[in-house]
Amino acid sequence: MKIAVSGKGGVGKTTFSALLIRALNKKGKHVLAIDADPDANLAAAIGIKGADKIVPIAEMKDLIFERTEAKAGTIGGFFKLNPKVDDLPEALSARFENIKLMRLGGVKKGGSGCICPESTLLKALVTHVVLSRDEVVVMDMEAGIEHLGRATAQAVDKLFIVVEPGRRSIETAGHIKKLASEIGLKNLSLVGNKIRSDKDIEFLKENLPGFEFSCFIPYDDALIEADLNGISPFDNKTSALIEIEKVIAGLTEK
């Protein structure tokens, strides 16, 4: 099962990803978690100790040079477009019970469409984990889906777009849907988050017609307290877990 999660920054995308990963882990699933959002910290949300010390792969200059034969930070020139990556999930993952986590990091670039060694390595790695790994893969992505190409998109079983009651969140969801359609990723669903009342649910449904909603996660102080206390939201008693179970049930049914 290959799952991608996206959404506007601040909507609770990483919290949702962490809850989903920990719930799958509790059910005995082996999960490969991919932190593809440089502005988030999925490891901390999962509850991995020393999360702040995990070096993003995009910053491993020696590894990038070894695999692509070009220095990180260079643009253009000659380098391998199909670097060896199949050993990296085992070699570079942080561990928590049945969970392996890889932190990709961001690619610093002056403009869009960077053709550079680090972006090539990261895309090759994402392609490998989506197409070749046999465990559950959950990818916490940026507000776009830049790490996915046409081949990987068609192998993703579900793209969850996390939204909150708000105009900018709705606009971002529409943008992500457009990007997904351009690469052939059709199986997507929304996760309504920070829901305070039925009015919030009605607002999202009215402003996002044509979307399927997998669940609506209520606004919960327990999630905020978990972040403030530096623990995983899964380890704080939260009503969100009821909705996460619905998501997992929907995935296994399909």
What does this structure look like?
- With 254 residues, the chain is of the alpha/beta class.
- It has one domain: Rossmann fold (3-Layer(aba) Sandwich).
- The chain is built from ten helices and eight strands.
- The chain has an eight-stranded mixed sheet, sandwiched between helices.
**Which fold does the CATH topology refer to?**
Rossmann fold
User: Which architecture does the CATH hierarchy give at level 2?
Assistant: 3-Layer(aba) Sandwich
Any idea what the radius of gyration is? 18 Å
Residues in helix, %: 25-40%
Give the total of beta strands. 8
Tally the helices: what do you get?
Answer: 10
Overall geometry comes to globular
Strand arrangement within the widest β-sheet reads 3-4-2-5-1-6-7-8
Order of helices and strands: EHEHHHEEHEHEHEHEHH
State the gist of this model:
The protein is of the alpha/beta class.
Write the layout of secondary structure elements.
Blueprint: E1 2-7, H1 13-26, E2 31-35, H2 42-46, H3 61-68, H4 88-92, E3 94-96, E4 99-103, H5 117-131, E5 136-140, H6 150-155, E6 158-163, H7 167-182, E7 188-195, H8 198-207, E8 213-218, H9 221-228, H10 240-253
Parallel strand pairs: 1-5, 1-6, 2-4, 2-5, 6-7, 7-8
Antiparallel strand pairs: 3-4
Helix pairs in contact: 1-10, 3-5
Keywords:
eight-stranded mixed beta sheet; 8 strands; Rossmann fold; 17% strand; 10 helices; 40% helix; 254 residues; alpha/beta
